[in-house]
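User: Hello! My lab partner asked me to get a predicted holo structure for this protein. The small molecule is zinc ion, SMILES included with the sequence. Please write out the C-alpha cells.
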Amino acid sequence: MIVVGAIIEALDQAFHFSTQDTWDNSGLIVGDPESEATGAICSVDITESVVDEAISLGYNVIIAHHPILFRPLKRLNYADEEQRLIAKAIKNDINLIAVHTPLDKTPIKGTSATVGAKLGLTDMRILVPEQYSFGECGYGVIGTLDKTVSSAEFLSHVAKTLNCQTISHNGIQKESIKTVALCTGSSIEFASKAELQHADAYITADIKYHQMASSEKMLIMDIGHFESEKVSTDIFLRELQEKFPNFALRISNASENIIKYYINTDGK
Ligand SMILES: [Zn+2]
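Assistant: Hello! Below are the C-alpha cells for the protein in complex with zinc ion.
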C-alpha cells in the first residue's frame, strides 16, 4: 500500500519543498497524508475537469504544478470557483498536491532545465543560483546551442520543439544566436541577469508590453505560460514511475492550456 504521505516524501526528495518562495503554496494543500493513495494524475493546473477525471478514474491524488490556493482561506462557503473545487475534492476524498516553485528551481530535472534540454542547450547552468545545504538550485538556466542560428531560425526551432501556436518577441534580428537563457512561467524579471551573462536570447512567458522593450541586445521571447510549463506533467510522471513502478499514474487528459488562441488566417 502506498500512502499519500509517501508520495509527498518522494516529491520532496526530488524537488525540495523547502526551496519554495515565501508567496508559494507547494505541498499537500488538501488531503490526508495517512490515507491510501489509489492512483495519481499529473496536471499543470487543478481545474474542475481534472478533479472530475480523477473521480471517474478512481484515483485520489492530483499532482499539479500550480497550487490551487495561494491566499489563506477564512471560509469555505462555495463563494468562488476555487472554494467549490476544494469542497469537491474534500467530498470525494481527493488529495491535492502542488509542486510549484521547487520544481521551477530544481536543477537538471526541473522545468527550466527540462525545457533547455529539449531545445538542445548544453553546458547549462542555473541563471539565478540559490545556495542550500543540499546544494545549488534556482530559477532559470543558461546554456549554449551546438550551432549558431538566426533569430528567425531560433523562433521556428522553439515554436516547433515546444509546440507553440504563437510566440511574441521584441523583433531583435540576430544573425548568430548561440547562448540562450530561459525561465519557465512569468519570469521577465530575470532578463537583466540573462543579458549580464551574455545571452543572445531570453525565453519566458507573461511579458507585458513595456517589459518587452527591456533589452536592445537580446531576442526576448514570450512563448506562453502553459507552453513553457507543460513539461511539468512529464517530470512528475517520470519521477513517480521510477519510485513507485506499480502505482497507477497518468498525465491528465484534461490538463490543457487555459488560454485559447484565435489565429487570424485571412491576413486582414
Ligand atoms: Zn507557472
